Amino acid sequence: MISWQCSWQRRTNLCFGGKSHMKKNLAFIMSLFMLLGIVAGCAQPAASAPSQDAAPEAAADVPMAYMTADELEAVLGTEGYLVLDVRKAADYAAAHIPGAISVDMDAAVQGDIEAGTAAMKAAIEGVDDTLVLVCYSGKKYAQASTNILSSLGYDTSKVFTLQDGFNNWSEAKADLIETGEGVAVTPAAVAFEGQYVVNAQYVLDHMGDANVLLVDARGEDAAKKGTVEGAIAVIWQMFAAVSEGAAGDPMWGTVLEPAALSEALGAAGISPDKEIILFAAAQNGWGDDGRILWELVAAGFPNVKMVDGGYDALVAAGAPIVKGAAAYTPAEVTIEAIDETHLINTDALAADYANYKIVDVRADEEYEGQVLYGEAKGGHLPGAIHIRYTDLFNEDCTLKTNEEIIAMFEAAGLAKTDNIVTYCTAGIRSAYMQLILEMCGYENTWNYDESYYRWCACQEVE
Q1: Residue 450, SS3?
Q2: Nearest to 275 by CA among 203, 213, 185, 209
Q3: What is the pLDDT of residue 162?
Q4: Is the domain 188-322 a CATH 3.20.20.100 member?
Q5: Fewer Cβ atoms within 10 Å of its own Cβ: the N or the C terminal residue of the chain?
Q6: Domain 65-179: what homologous superfamily?
Q7: DSSP class of residue 240?
């Protein structure tokens, strides 16, 4: 139960000089109050009622209650429970929880409350069950649905939202998904386009090709819960200098030297003669696929891609899912040198700091100074522009369109002629951001892979 309590208290103390002046003072105060009343009656009210032409204020969101994936599994198919999938109808058609009913609430999320209300009203007609709302991540679509259910008079004590949405369910309960024919989550006409990005349908069309290697960048633990059939699993740390020292030390977390990187990639079977297709958890993760792709580009790999929408998009498109990653097939890999075209370290950044626009891609609380991951101190680089990594994505985990992302960059004050450095905590999310900037035409961009861990340990912050 969540409760809100607000109180306002004003105390006024009047002090009088003595008993002999009591009557005079009281008479004066009464006269003063009468005068103030007259003035107030003639004055314009401080907060007048809005005119009929003013836009109505949006109603406050109705508090949501949550149900975990395990809790939903325990009651799935039980009488008295009804699962409403409030995602876009196309995504429901591609993959959904068994027994769920589709109630497409995209119109409501886009502002057409009337259409959303009509859809929900039809779905709950004659229903008095406990409702479980399934959206993408347990946020926007579920909130819009909860608000509408409340406006329709439904007992909201019987309305729950699946915690972390279908995105989490598709990983935690991969064996409890009904799939239809492959449906691309994002229509090609409005999808992000870039040389390093492919959609889920592309993976379905090419995953059987002999020269294609699927790489689950979420790692083996996540793959054990569910991954695409045939994919190997890796983590970014396998290809970074993290075995010695600690976060914040010089060059910790940066790209391995060529010989060490060659050995690490070869052991995993990631070789430049293959088309490497990486996927991770989109905005629900850290951009691990982007970090590894960024390293592979720097290592000279000619054909590397990452999946728009990540693992969830692959599940929704009907990719075959198994528990556990494929075994590595070691290969001979030789990296001659690391191309530093889009890489910058602390010394180089500090030496020419005024020549760069710095973009902090971390979450709000990190930018504002909270220490969450063992940083030496909180804050951000001086003058850093804040563009969250998660701002790149739609609710369904796919990337926003090029036009939308460029508009966001321009609104933040970035021009395509600027020298732009991205950073996060350890150069993971910022590598993803650098790639997106590059694909949107911002060519003079660098990922600061020592990132905030190192900067805050040796430089001033705000």
Answers
A1: coil
A2: 213
A3: 96
A4: no
A5: N
A6: Rhodanese-like domain (3.40.250.10)
A7: B
Q: What are the tokens at 28? A: 């004066």
Q: Is 406 a residue whose pLDDT tops 50?
A: yes
Write out the H or E segment, with its range, that includes residue 277: strand 275-279
Among residues 449, 418, 415, which one has the least CA distance to residue 432? 449
Calpha distance 438→455 (Å, rounded)? 24
d(CA 228, CA 147): 36
> How far lies 448's CA from each of 264, 345, 421, 433, in Å?
22, 6, 6, 11
Task: Report residue 275 CA to chain centroid gap.
Answer: 27
Which residue type occupies 119? A
Using a 10 angstrom Cβ sphere, with 0-12 exposed, 13-18 middle and 19 or more buried, the burial of residue 302 is: exposed
Common-topology check for domains 65-179 and 343-458: yes
- Nearest Cα neighbor of 85 from 169, 208, 188 is 169
Tell whether the model's pLDDT for residue 216 goes beyond 80: yes
- Tell me the per-residue pLDDT of 45-70, one tens digit each, with 9 for 90 and over: 333 333 323 333 346 899 999 999 99
Mean pLDDT of the chain, nearest integer: 85
| CA–CA distance, 84 with 87 (Å, rounded to integer) | 9
Entry field: residues in the chain: 462
Axis-axis angle for helices 429-439, 402-411 (nearest 10): 110
Q: Can you read off the two tokens belonging to residue 109?
A: 């999320």
Given a cut of 60, whether residue 116 has pLDDT beyond it is yes
Amino acid at 232: I
Task: Give the Å distances, CA to CA, from 58 to 61, 112, 113, 144, 147.
Answer: 9, 13, 11, 12, 11
CB atoms < 10 A from the CB of 107, how many? 17
DSSP state of 391: G
The CATH number of 343-458, from 2.40.37.20, 3.40.50.1980, 2.170.150.70, 3.40.250.10, is 3.40.250.10
The token pair that represents 400 in the structure block: 């926003």
Tell me the two tokens of residue 311.
């693992």
What whole-number percentage of the chain has pLDDT above 70? 85
Domain limits, the chain: 65-179, 188-322, 343-458
Instruction: State the DSSP string of 108-120.
Output: HHTT-HHHHHHHH
- What are the tokens at 230? 């045939």
